[in-house]
Amino acid sequence: MKIPVKISLQSSKNRSMKKKKKRSFMRRISWNMLILILVSNLVTYVFAYMFFYHTIYENTKSSGENMLIANLQVLDQYFRQIDQIADAIIYNESLNNMLKSETDTSSNMQMLKSIEQIYYHSRSDLQLTFYKEKSPRYAYSIYTNTYYSMIVNFKTSFWYQQLHESGEKKILLTNIHSEGELSSGDFVHSMIYRIDDLYSNRVVGYLRIDMDLAKLQEQLMLNYIGVEGVEIVSKDGEVLFYTGEKMEMPKESFSENISGGIREISTGKSFIYCGISEKTGWIVAISISKRGLYQQSIIIGFLLLTILLLTLAVCLTVVDKNSVILNQNMLRLTEGMNAMKRGELEIQVNPSADDEIERVIVKFNEMAAQIRELVGKIEAKQALLSEAQIKALQQQINPHFIYNSMETLMGMASEGQNQEIIEICKCISAMLRYNTRMAGNSTIKDELMQVQNYTKVMAMRMGGSFEPRYAVDPECLDAKIVKFSLQPLMENAIGHGMDNRANGGLVYVSAKKDGTEVEIRIMDNGCGISPAKLRRLQEQMAAENENYLKMMENSSNTGLLNVHLRLKLYFGKEYSMTIRSEMGEGTDIRIRIPYWKEEKHVSSHDCG
Fold it and tell me: The whole model's pTM is what?
């Protein structure tokens, strides 16, 4: 009886050892990853819930602040329109003469009636009343049968005293009917403007605009989720009106300073956001319910928990099936990486199955292709920089330019123009010294000196057919720029733009510092560039082509395109060039580069 039992135990132990040996390393890694996923997802769940709760709160706060800003803008715009109406009336010369007159004629009353009727029909929420400085016992308004009515001397009123004491030209009164001055309908808020003589500082009268804020109330926005109401409160804490549900504002909020911006007040059921109107000093408050915030948090919590459980279920289902495929694809990917390390940039890994690792392999293949492209692009750019510098040097002082300059010198020598000969020689000498410098970059100061030297020579050679003008900001003179960037542009402006002009030509060169950038502008009033040629040039400049050298060989604007490509390679995305040109009107080229200061640089000499 004991022998069978012993054999059975030994067989079970052997099977267990064999089963343990069959488990691959990737399988063990998969199970360890499953445990790690469980722990990490639990931690992630906690932090994600906290993050989403914070995000919902921030979104709620942002919504309240945005709506508050929008309603402050509505309020300020409403009073800005009233100011515009007041300005249109105050500077009316006929009205000004009527207020200065000693007597009230029928023509003056008719003029006043016509002014008030305009706004009576167009702005039913406003009521206009005029006061004469010389007649403090009368108020002129279309709402009275005789266009004016007897009142208590307005010079004893609060608003009159405040206007004179403060020296302000207008004053806002709230609940003006409590003073017993006028009582008509729902007009309870007034703006009173001082009217001065158009030709002196003497006060001739006052304009009072009573407002029905029901129209303003209609314009306030309540279109954010969770917003319970909008309330406007005076400086003294008095509720002027509210839209939606009336909120309970803490009394201490009015005594504390909120003029620095937007203030958040938390009550038992709501978040209240307060801000002050610049035009009126009134406090605008937005109330947002907390209940919506809590509901969204609960929904997010259940959603995250559901995602966590589903993720674990999926991991348990696929971990065993994908371990073998995972191992195969990992081996292929490792072999590809080793080949990449050996410098075999043409390597391409072929996945054995469509799974997560297959996507990693695809990205690896894309990365390998991008590395090949980047290596080729770097080689092309290095070749372009060397070739561009050589071509730029060849385009500066070329035999054709020297030949024409010598012809000009001989002509001047035959006419005895010794001083002009000296000037040209100085300019050419300075240009040759600048060209022999092997530095790849220069400063705007040296580039402008080179341009000035070239321009002086061309101006003498062309007999004054054009005039150069310069406007240079001294702050940008030490900024870095690629060498030979400006002279090719000046050559185009003079050589092509001024080619058919006998006189009256103008070439304008400016450079100014604009924040962290420098703007360089070269403009001429020459013949301009044809639309087709300009369109082709702009297409070439916008093209993202690796073979820049071939593109330059196929272009008829070699100098301009050469400058564009070198500046683009040197400054990158921070550089831009725009070209505007019209036939017969001229060409305007604007370059914007970052302000990179040249710390150590030996300036070249100009021609004096």
Answer: 0.43
